[in-house]
Design goal:
Layout (H helix, E strand, L loop, with lengths): L3 H9 L5 E2 L3 E2 H6 L1 H7 L9 E6 L3 H11 L5 E6 L4 H6 L9 H14 L4 E6 L4 H14 L4 E4 L15 H10 L4 E4 L5 H11 L3 E3 L2 H5 L11 H14 L4 H11 L1 H6 L1 H8 L4 H22 L28 H10 L22 H9 L32 H11 L2 E2 L4 E2 H7 L4 E3 L5 E3 L1
Parallel strand pairs: 1-3, 2-3, 3-4, 4-5, 5-6, 6-7, 7-8
Antiparallel strand pairs: 9-10, 11-12
Helix pairs in contact: 1-11, 4-6, 6-7, 7-8, 11-12, 11-15
């Protein structure tokens, strides 16, 4: 599930079917710029499933009709566990609203003239998960993708996905089922297909760290990075998206060569990214000559490499117990990453976005001391510097009108206009206008 150049990279390396990133259906139908930026396809980008999040059946139907000419199916994402999905009322946070889910799928399935599929998560209970999947099938979903984790299994509590839940669903529905979860190597694909009996296996995180996963191959990280950057030149996309992919590919390389992480974080162009990839290649080849394929070292962040860092390999999340232990003891590794676990001058923890900015601009000060200070008007807004009433514009306008005065700072000329106008009419006590 990614943008066009990454999808094209995956297709080169034997991915049979690709999804777009999850698109917000309401924004998609209203914002043509959003459509243009996020719905970018080409003739070779097929077969393709466009994925939306939604909580309104009519909105989802409209979005489906817009993209229908450009894809083979439309997917409703009912598996997103992120907090933004909670706030937006979509994804896995709809799992308990079965009537709404049924309408979302059914309305578009009957009226969009394109197959509708669904991506879901599992409940703790296998039985409830099976009933949930059967409802999704009855609503009209032509394929069910199942992430074998619950809503609560995310972040430090991710843990392992349950193939038993997926297997049970496959045994009780008649539509094709795609399994998702625990796919890190090609052998995992074969084991999952055999154990669950599903028609297909999808992978997200495993693919981001190794786009050649479906080829049963672990190429050099710079090989995949260079190939991807060439595709970005052919199919341009926002620089931030490319940076994110590069960080995934070079995840373990940056554990060993920390200085290169900073170079990628502060890169301003694709050429900067190409230069980083070249530096990773040069250092990787040098380490291969020094240590050979058995190169295993203690990472700068506290854990041993499972494989040489120059090979594409899966990211292994810490177990929930390990994550809790790190939280209790304080994650010392984060201190070695610029911008992580950072705080301002008052000790207040920075937001994720500010930490990302600090990573790119380490000299930036997010504290209050360098910010300009302003005297405040009685309404709480900053005063204008040269206002004759010493007020903000709104308060100045009221005061100047009442006093029939001018304020050149705010371009209010009540006195000037009043003096130029000849007194033509006044109103008597009854409100009737009379001539003077």
């Amino acid at each position: 599930m990614s943008e066009l150049p990454w999808r094209m990279l995956c297709r080169r390396h034997k991915a049979d079917l690709c999804y777009t990133p999850m698109l917000h259906s309401q924004v998609f139908i209203k914002d043509t710029t959003y459509q243009k930026d996020h719905m970018v396809v080409c003739e070779e980008d097929r077969p393709l499933i466009v994925q939306f999040c939604a909580d309104d059946p009519d909105t989802f139907l409209t979005a489906c009709k817009i993209v229908a000419p450009h894809c083979e199916a439309v997917d409703i994402n009912l598996g997103c566990p992120q907090n933004i999905a909670r706030r937006g009322h979509y994804g896995a946070f709809l799992m308990e609203e079965w009537d709404l889910i049924y309408k979302l799928i059914n309305v578009s399935s009957l009226n969009a003239n394109i197959p509708v599929t669904a991506k879901i998560r599992v409940f703790e209970s296998i039985e409830r998960t099976v009933e949930y999947a059967k409802m999704v099938e009855q609503a009209g979903a032509k394929i069910i993708g199942i992430h074998g984790r619950t809503l609560e299994q995310k972040g430090p509590n991710t843990g392992l996905a349950s193939w038993d839940h997926i297997k049970a669903v496959k045994q009780h529905v008649n539509v094709p089922v795609f399994a998702n979860g625990n796919i890190q190597y090609y052998d995992d694909i074969e084991r999952c297909l055999k154990y669950t009996g599903v028609e297909g296996v999808m992978t997200a995180e495993g693919n981001l760290h190794n786009p050649a996963l479906f080829e049963a191959r672990q190429p050099f990280v710079w090989e995949m990075a260079d190939e991807y950057l060439e595709l970005v030149q052919q199919y341009p996309c926002p620089l931030a998206w490319s940076r994110g992919h590069m960080f995934k590919l070079f995840h373990y390389a940056f554990h060993v060569h920390i200085d290169l992480r900073e170079k990628l974080a502060t890169g301003k162009s694709l050429n900067d990214f190409v230069a980083v990839s070249q530096m990773v290649k040069e250092r990787g080849l040098e380490d291969m000559r020094k240590y050979g394929d058995d190169y295993l070292t203690e990472l700068s962040e506290g854990g041993p490499l499972r494989q040489p860092y120059w090979l594409c390999q899966p990211y292994f999340r810490p177990t929930p117990d390990e994550a809790r232990e790190r939280q209790l003891n304080g994650d010392e590794r984060a201190k070695k990453r610029p911008g992580e676990a950072a705080s301002d001058e008052n000790g207040k923890k920075l937001s994720i976005n500010k930490m990302k900015k600090l990573l790119r601009y380490p000299q930036k000060n997010f504290g209050q001391s360098n910010r300009a200070t302003y005297e405040l008007c009685e309404c709480g807004q900053p005063k204008s510097k040269n206002c004759v009433f010493g007020s903000c514009r709104n308060c100045c306008k009221v005061k100047a009108f009442k006093a029939v005065e001018d304020c050149t700072t705010h371009r209010l000329l009540f006195k000037t206009k009043s003096s130029k106008e000849a007194p033509a009419e006044t109103a008597d006590a009854t409100g009737v206008e009379v001539a003077t």
